[in-house]
Amino acid sequence: MSERLIIRISDASQPIYWAQVRANDNQVVESGSCQQLSALTEQAQTRRVVVLVDSTWLTLTSVTLPPGSRRQRDKVVPYLLEEALAEEVEAVHVSIVDTQADTAHVAVVAHQQMQAWQHALDEAGIDARQWIPDVLCVPWSSDSLSLLALGEQWLCRFSANQGVVGSADWLAFWGQAWWQHRQDSEETLSPEQADSLTIKGYVDDKPQADNPLSALPLPVEWQSDHAMHLLAVQSHGVTANLLTGGYRPQSQTKQTLRPFLPAACLLIAMAGLLGVEQWLSIRDTQQQARALRGQSEALFRQTLPEYERIPTRSYMVRQMDAEIARLENQQHDAALLPWLVELAPLLEDVPGIELEALRYQANREALILRATGNDFAQFERLRATLSKHYATDLGQLNRSGETVSGEFTLRSQS
Hints:
Blueprint: E1 3-9, E2 16-22, E3 28-34, H1 41-45, E4 48-53, E5 59-64, H2 73-80, E6 92-100, E7 103-110, H3 111-123, E8 128-133, E9 144-150, E10 153-159, E11 162-166, H4 171-185, H5 191-196, E12 198-203, E13 220-224, H6 227-234, H7 252-257, H8 261-274, H9 276-303, H10 313-328, H11 332-348, E14 354-361, E15 366-373, H12 376-387, E16 390-394, E17 398-400, E18 403-412
Parallel strand pairs: 1-4, 4-8, 9-12, 12-13
Antiparallel strand pairs: 1-2, 2-3, 5-7, 6-7, 9-10, 10-11, 14-15, 15-18, 16-18, 17-18
Helix pairs in contact: 8-9
């Protein structure tokens, strides 16, 4: 594949950041953010996908391996961490990201969180074979503390295999703690080495001079760079992968051959026991199965022409089930028509607002209206207009570039 798709995921409170990177020169082609992984499904089908996971949800630490335990380290390490864990060993996934001499550097994340991320990717039809803690993609050198601003979060990397994620309120604490640790652990630090210690910050715009780090006895070097571009480019050289143990992805060859293995074994046994005639009968059955699959795919494309690719049979079944559910609930559409008649002139009163989607919830007798505009003031004007006719709630507004998006919830005034 000529490009990689780097996706940074967290939870529902954070946007999903993404970047496309050319494989030949490791340069970012395109980047952006979205709220749903399904928005990236089409891009993911033709690109190698690498997932960066929000390190807020995991712990990066290290343990000392007992003598003779290197071969069994995957089994030993979780129990070496048992006393330090806030949860039972069985409730967490421990992945070794690096090993140096008798030290194992590990990432600890709850099984529940791993499964939630995997479920979200599966629902979007995205196959990623490498998950990297995002802080390990922040540029770092041994004489510096690296900080990177991503949206409202700050990524802090303080060693080759360790880092944390938090808000801007933590910056001064991280800087002071790192400086104190270097003083305590390097008593033989020469004056030249001490002078070379710096804090390096990566931000979209240069911060104000009175930022929390300005009070520290360390030079702070700020570099203007697009955060997701930097993480995407740096991920190329990271070998760490959370997909170990039970989460290890199967090889593409095994995944391709697995559906055919039972049939192949059956064919061999029948050919040996029953001869050529029985073997031909099985071959005919397989041809019928392929024909039926072809017919089902043709029917699927005829029914849902917007889906040109059918990556898996389960994907086709899920889409058909979703369409059946939509048709079963079609009676709700009749209740939507009066809303549309009333809304049309109201929306025209606020130029610049573009309607993205409508969703009627019969059980709540509410209409969800998702729209985009040029600025926050347009949404306030539309809310004032709608409030004259409906009980109106305006949800959180989000800005992406020059576009502002948000949702209105409308109910009939009692």
